[in-house]
């Protein structure tokens, strides 16, 4: 099998452009695009994607430099906003999400900030779900509010609540689905229809599913946001993010924020994410399978009062799995007896699982959301989001399931009533 570069796939394409250099074009399968898209071979004829560790690029003449800076000619200028390795990651992820444009950022939070700075202005209003990552809520409440951007919150799955929260100044609807950490879901097609009927944009944080399991743009969303740090990398090695959407909003407006303000993804991190995307489909299938089995096992354990997993029939939005998601994902949350003391005793008894707030790794991770990922929220905000003191979140890795179960059993037997 050979890979040839089409004539329109020259080095120095404008950032955020649609993927054009992929084997078989748009007809190629997901796995093929995850391996092949975005790599424009240099004159060296390399097989693996190169890392361009350079801060700047050389121009052939003063006129060429002027044309690039003016946007009249495509090509690299400065690695804050044009770098071939970063561009390869952007093209590959854009192909997998089915988007026209992708802008890579220094982190997932930088991606959210770039969206808000690029598309909103003072006086605008956001409607977001209550079930958000804690830092996202703080960004909206503590920082965007300083610049005259207000935020209202509603229950993620309640479309009537979304509709009621939208006002004359609302410009953006923002959600995670599945949510962090309770894996709540919303009907994305219905929410997108509501957003557009009310002249709003819909942005979806697709961190938990990735395009291997869910593609929000195909369901009507306008913007997709990723923390590439999680499943896109897959091994907990680097920090990064991405925004995907159309050429105007993402390729121009969000990209403009990146070019000027500089929340830039490094070439090395982009290269790591490129390699992570190659195995994304295989890993997400394995994570989902392991999480489904672990969720069913947890539901049978004394001391566990509730399990949250989209793949289980008792999940309130279970009907959406198979409709908008191709699997339940790798995140399982569960409540235990004994509140914070009970949850901490389970966590502290583990010897195999990694006690860390990160997720999406080959290694299974475990955390107590009320004191880590959502610890900076007020008790009232956590209560509104359903995050109790006895809640534990697990991101199921790729170890043997029996070993994960045995490690959790060490702490589960210590819970009250067991």
Query: Span between N and C termini?
Result: 58 Å
**What string gives the helices and strands in order?**
HHHEHEHEHEHEHEEHHHEEHEEHEH
Oligomeric state of this protein: single chain
Gyration radius (Cα, Å) is: 22 Å
Number of helices: 14
CATH topology of the largest domain: Aspartate Aminotransferase, domain 2
Query: How many strands, what sense, and barrel or not for the largest sheet?
Result: 7 strands, mixed
Total strand segments = 12
The stretches of 5 or more residues where confidence is low (pLDDT under 50) are 1-22
Structural class, by secondary structure, is alpha/beta
Order of strands across the main sheet = 1-7-6-5-4-2-3
Morphology: globular
In the CATH scheme, the class of the largest domain would be Alpha Beta
Report the CATH superfamily of the largest domain: Type I PLP-dependent aspartate aminotransferase-like (Major domain)
CATH architecture group name of the largest domain: 3-Layer(aba) Sandwich
- Proportion of beta-strand residues: 5-15%
Determine the fraction of residues in helical runs and give it as a percent range: 25-40%
Number of domains: 2
What integer is the average pLDDT? 93
